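Standup, Tuesday
Yesterday: got the pipeline producing structure tokens again.
Today: sanity-check two examples.
Blockers: none.

Example 1:
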Amino acid sequence: MLEYLAGLSAIVIIISLFSYFLPTVIAMLRGKSNTFAILLLNLFLGWTFIGWIVALVWSVTSDNKPQTIVVNNNSSIEPKNELKTLTSVGIKSEQIDNTNLNSHQDKIQNLKKLKQLLDDGILTQEEFIQQKNQILE
């Protein structure tokens, strides 16, 4: 009977430890970049229900992955100046040289590109208006 209780106690302890470290296990299985931080939070604050819930939510959220934005310029006229971009936060605006807008077709293409950047959330409304005015001048 004593062996039965010892075996049952071992099973209860294993299940309890697995439940306690469930957020860490999930983070490891999902390959989270901050698994060690989740382990520390789980280890030191998991005994509080709120700490355990925070670790669990953190382990199931997705990692922020950098986004690559490619701007394809299919213009038949080679621009004299390269497009300048702000890359500290991603592409925020494009500086368009008015000398490259030789034809009406070029203006239309550039306006379409600007509208697409606005729709994608890459440009703010103010940046869109500024660049649009540059093209239409």
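Example 2:
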Amino acid sequence: MSENSANGVSRFAVELGVAALTGAFGAAVCHGSLDIGAGWTEMGPDAGYFPFYIGLLIVFGSLVNIAQAFLKHRGTGEIFIDAGRAKVVASFLLPLVAFGAIAAWLGLYVGTALYIAATMVFQGRYKWWIALPAGLGVSAAFFLIFEIGFQVPLLKGPVEAWFGIY
């Protein structure tokens, strides 16, 4: 696809951005490994020895990806994502981010009920009186499966204190 990069985000920019992020992650791994010791002692390797070299491999891989981006995609104008596709991706990504924030604050059961109901209403165009019981039903099913069936407590947030659970 050889299009004008003014119509979207270029593949070259995305390749460089991802390589920079993974390179920064590898550098952070190396830095953390040096803090706890990445050398070799008379008893063997320090705690950070293997993570340090894994971090170096990640940095090396990122540098290779940067070189490949310059060789293959620089100046091609190839589009990675345009505005229309970005809108579709955001319509699914933003509710997931909101679910994560709500689940961390109010617990997984409340977050799941709200996510299912909101997704049904806004993306599926269901009526609220259908979506709300569906969201509550999924949360109730998760509670029965995890809390009662498997006896695995999940994050409840303040709901635990409100209902006196555990």
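Quick observation on example 2: Residues 142 and 148 are 9 Å apart (CA to CA). Residues 5-77 form one domain.
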